[in-house]
Design brief:
Chain lengths: 94, 879
């Protein structure tokens, strides 16, 4: 693993500068059934496809970012910072 | 004055530009190594750093290629894998036992553990390559360097030089990487080069945009256009440098290398590739022998024959590869038997196969297609950012010898893989046993898996596999190319040996007080302080312990993670992330909490102090600071909450604890420290000895005490002031060991020591810390599920019944069955017994006093306790 990840703030950087934060998931509401919570807590999609992921630029700007990554080729299609106060009703599921 | 170096204790002279191999050859050395399995003598073969025949120990470093290592003054070179010497190797007797050791014999003969354990030491002694340097000896220095260029050109031969020149002239930033001691490739040693080499090199050096690394091998092409380059002796302070080269485009111009032909005894000393002979003659001015036979197809031997004749070497004959029957000789070659007659000689020159050096291209994803007219696998379908240029792409290649090769007269001593002594008979046997796919054949016989990584043997292995299975070369195909190739030392991969050290602002005070250090992550912490009078660690620790319990002690806790959290919505975030309730904490109060993940597992713990309505101060455990900060910031995303988190770990922090802590502080400040004005679990910002300090009245060690956080610049000043003020109370600084004992008596857990990656607060007997009536917090759903079930295991306290002290991690048994393990245990001076924390199964917890702890192989009785071992009511904390 030695691909470059374009940080929206610092530009293309070695992936070793980042911490992987896992695939983006939707956290269930507190009163959701136990099955939803168990799926959210213990399972991953582990898709061989393009997926949305959390990354943290540990050795750079120290910010969390979102990346669209092809898990087969490690191609990064897009990265962006989540906005602090979503105005368009956008949610950042964890 | 020539350069001198040592070989096996003898002094040798070297001419300018000599490599270790050329200097030794000039001095008459012919055997350069003994083979891996049979200890057959091996001499120079490729002289290009591609074959395994000249691996030697150079200045303590094993398996160095003598033929590409330029001699430096005072170098110490030793042979490998031969006893007592290369000329007379007693271990070569192994050859006569070859009938005992057919291919894969160890898979069949050494299957029983008893047999293997008996035989293994002998095999290790006899087989193998160099010996790793002994542990503990000073090892040389390695370094890593990162480079970024537009185009990397790999290979400094005519193609690489031309490519670099063309790109450089166009203003492109170029890095030219060549693995030979000097640029030029085959132009350096060919009789009539088509282009004058000096001109090429001069024009290259005139270009500012071209940078050159000579004598460095590119061992891998990794994802993201990252090249791994190994550069030996970059300067006098390092033996090797690993260069990480990030590029936009790669031009591979590695050319071809020559590989041997297959006939019996083709490994004898004196059988040499034609390019090696030319290198000896033209690069080093060495006359390689007296009587030479040339093996060449299609008139290819003419050039080397002329070279030899010019030097007065008798060229006895030139024979076609198909005509060769076998080489004859013992420690040296004596002659060549062919269908055209038998020739006496001391040199056999092989005009071998030309193999494109395309490993990097295959790694990049190129397909290797068999091209019969070129007699080679040629790279096709290159990815867009990679180009092949020159002979490596198949340019001007012509097949030199038939492939698949004809059946040799005698298969047993016709060597394919020189690295692991695999003969064509071995390959036939393996194929006969069913390993007829090139990939399984490789794994079973280990052909192509040695130090040369298949450079010398891959083509012949494919050839024999094709012949024996009656498939074509194309259908047989190549094995997968993987980095690193050539091999890289572990030292180079590990890099420089400077580990970062973190020191608290009080670090140098501890040194003056006799601190005995321990490592905690990157931090250095005093384990205990050695008293001026000589005494044991246990004695020192007990002295520190008694100071805290009876008088007063001071410890540096600067390694704690410290976060300053400010903003309107701090309470909301902390309530959501921590398990305890923190929004209703009054300013000036402190609360303990744990941090769980969504599975309810304890990730960290610490104290949370509320300094003002919109201002909190959090401490984390030493190793978890970064994680906790990232965790808080992550959960903050998308909430729109007004919260700002700042890492303030640079603050100094100490803990002053003990029954006399109050009067010590009273000497340095006017603040009222009575329990009424400053109760347990509260905090104040006051000046102590003129220093602004945040004081937290908390009790990790179980005595009245204050944790003090203050600017690091005043660290040493305040530390010394506190010790001075405590002098009349006989204050002692205490270290981590005493702190661990003190907290253990209070049954305070250390996250990561007494808990592991599966511990939840319910099992840790800390369910009070999870406020299940909060509407939501991380881990609540999991804890709610867990609460209705009986925990499988529990963290309990135990007291040993006898006088023994178990070790941390000791096993716990109930009725002879394994039922748990000790996480922390220490001798408790107050209880006069060892006390500790342990994980036990739910049944064992009910067994109470029937548990047994393994101590030095014996089982000792212990009793489970529900209470703290010291001051269970917590009276002393509140005094």
């Amino acid at each position: 693993m030695s691909f470059l990840l374009p940080c929206p703030h610092c530009g293309p950087r070695s992936v070793y500068e980042f911490r992987f934060g896992g695939e983006v998931k939707q956290r269930p509401s507190p009163d959701a059934p136990a099955e939803d919570w168990i799926r959210y807590t213990y399972t991953k999609a582990n898709a061989a496809a393009v997926q949305r992921e959390w990354w943290y630029h540990r050795s750079g700007c120290r910010r969390w970012l979102l990346a669209l990554r092809n898990t087969v080729t490690n191609e990064i299609l897009e990265t962006n910072f989540p906005t602090d106060s979503p105005t368009n009703g956008e949610q950042y599921p964890k | 004055m020539g350069i001198t170096f040592e070989f096996n204790g003898r002094r040798f002279e070297a001419a300018p530009n000599d490599t270790v191999a050329s200097a030794l050859y000039r001095a008459g050395v012919r055997i350069f190594s003994r083979s891996f399995k049979y200890h057959r003598p091996r001499g120079l073969l490729c002289l290009a750093g591609k074959c395994p025949n000249c691996l030697m120990n150079v200045d303590g470093q094993p398996n160095v290629r003598a033929c590409t290592t330029v001699v430096r003054q005072g170098m110490r070179v030793r042979h490998q894998n031969a006893y007592p010497s290369l000329e007379h190797d007693l271990l070569s007797a192994v050859q006569h036992l070859d009938w005992l050791m057919p291919v894969g014999w160890y898979y069949k003969a050494l299957t029983r553990p008893q047999v293997w354990h008996r035989v293994e030491p002998f095999i290790r002694q006899v087989a193998g390559l160099g010996v790793p340097p002994s542990a503990g000896l000073p090892s040389p220095d390695y370094e890593h360097v990162h480079m970024h260029v537009e185009v990397a050109v790999i290979g400094g031969g005519p193609a690489g030089l031309r490519a670099a020149l063309e790109l450089g002239r166009a203003g492109v930033q170029v890095l030219l990487i060549d693995d030979q001691p000097a640029l030029g490739g085959h132009l350096r040693y060919q009789k009539n080069p088509s282009v004058p080499l000096v001109d090429l090199i001069n024009s290259l050096h005139a270009l500012a945009s071209v940078k050159v690394i000579e004598g460095a091998s590119c061992f891998g092409l990794y994802e993201g256009n990252l090249l791994g380059v190994l550069q030996p002796s970059p300067h006098s302070m390092a033996v090797e440098r690993l260069v990480h080269v990030r590029v936009e485009r790669i031009v591979v111009a590695t050319g071809t290398y020559e590989t041997p032909l297959v006939f019996p005894n083709n490994d004898l000393v004196g059988v040499m590739l034609s390019t090696a002979v030319q290198r000896l003659i033209r690069l080093h001015g060495i006359v390689p022998g007296k009587r030479a036979v040339i093996v060449a197809g299609g008139g290819r031997g003419q050039e080397v024959a002329d070279d030899l004749r010019e030097l007065g070497v008798t060229v006895v004959a030139t024979v076609a590869p198909e005509a060769v029957m076998e080489a004859v000789g013992g420690r040296r070659i004596k002659g060549l038997r062919t269908r055209e007659g038998n020739f006496e000689c001391d040199l056999v020159v092989i005009c071998g196969h030309r193999v494109p050096d395309a490993g990097l291209l295959a790694q990049a994803g190129a397909r290797m297609d068999w091209d019969a007219t070129r007699g080679a696998f040629v790279p096709v379908d290159l990815p867009p950012h990679v180009e092949a240029f020159g002979q490596v792409a198949g340019e001007s290649l012509v097949a030199t010898a038939p492939l698949p090769p004809p059946e040799p007269t005698f298969n047993k001593r016709a060597f394919i893989c020189l690295c692991a002594d695999v003969t064509s008979q071995d390959l036939r046997d393996a194929i006969g046993e069913g390993f007829d796919h090139i990939e399984t054949l490789k794994r079973y016989t280990t052909a192509t898996m040695g130090p040369c990584q298949g450079k010398m043997c891959q083509l012949n292995t494919i050839g024999i596999c094709a012949r024996e299975t009656q498939r074509s070369m194309a259908a047989t195909g190549m094995t997968t190319a993987r980095p690193p190739n050539p091999s890289v030392t572990l030292g180079a991969l590990a890099g420089a040996r400077h580990h970062p050290i973190r020191r608290t602002p009080l670090h140098y005070c501890h040194g003056e007080l006799g601190a005995v250090w321990m490592d905690m992550g990157d931090w250095k912490r005093p384990r205990y302080y050695q008293t001026p009078a000589p005494s044991t660690e246990r004695h020192c620790v007990e002295g520190e312990y008694r100071a805290v319990r009876e008088r007063v002690g001071l410890i540096d806790v600067g390694t704690l993670g410290k976060l300053d959290v400010q903003g309107r919505d701090c309470g909301a975030l902390l309530d959501f992330v921590y398990s305890n309730r923190l929004s209703d904490l009054r300013p000036g109060r402190v609360r303990y909490s744990v941090l769980c993940d969504e599975a309810g597992i304890m990730l960290d713990d610490g104290t949370i102090s509320r300094l003002a309505d919109d201002h909190y101060f959090i401490t984390t455990t030493t190793g978890n600071l970064d994680f906790v900060q990232q965790w808080l910031e992550w959960w903050l995303i998308g909430t729109g909450w007004d919260v700002h988190i700042t890492n303030v770990t640079g603050l100094a922090a100490v803990n002053l604890a003990g029954p006399q802590a109050r009067p010590v502080l009273g000497k340095l400040t006017d603040c009222d420290f009575s329990s009424k004005a400053f109760p347990y679990m509260s905090c104040r910002q006051v000046e102590v000895a003129g220093v602004p300090v945040l004081l937290l009245r908390i009790g990790f060690v179980g005595e009245t005490g204050w944790e003090m956080h203050f600017p690091g610049e005043w660290g040493e000043y305040l530390w010394k002031k506190l010790l001075e003020a405590g002098k009349e109370f006989d204050i002692r600084p205490f270290g981590v060991e005493a702190q661990r004992l003190l907290r253990l008596e209070k049954r305070h857990v250390i996250v990561g020591v007494d808990t592991d990656a599966l511990t939840n607060p319910l099992e840790a007997d800390m369910s009070w810390v999870a406020k299940m009536d909060k509407p939501d917090f991380i881990g609540k759903a999991a804890l709610a599920r867990l609460r209705v079930r009986e925990p499988q295991q529990k963290l309990v306290g135990f007291v040993m019944q006898g006088d023994t002290v178990p070790e941390d991690g000791a096993a716990i048994l109930v009725h002879g069955k394994l039922a748990g393990r000790v996480t922390s245990v220490r001798y408790s001076p107050i209880n006069h017994k060892a006390v500790g924390l342990a994980w036990v199964s739910a049944e064992a917890e009910k067994a109470d006093d029937a548990i047994r702890v393994r101590v030095n192989g014996r089982l000792e009785a212990a009793r489970i306790t529900r209470e703290a071992f010291y001051d269970p009511e917590g009276v002393r904390l509140r005094m």
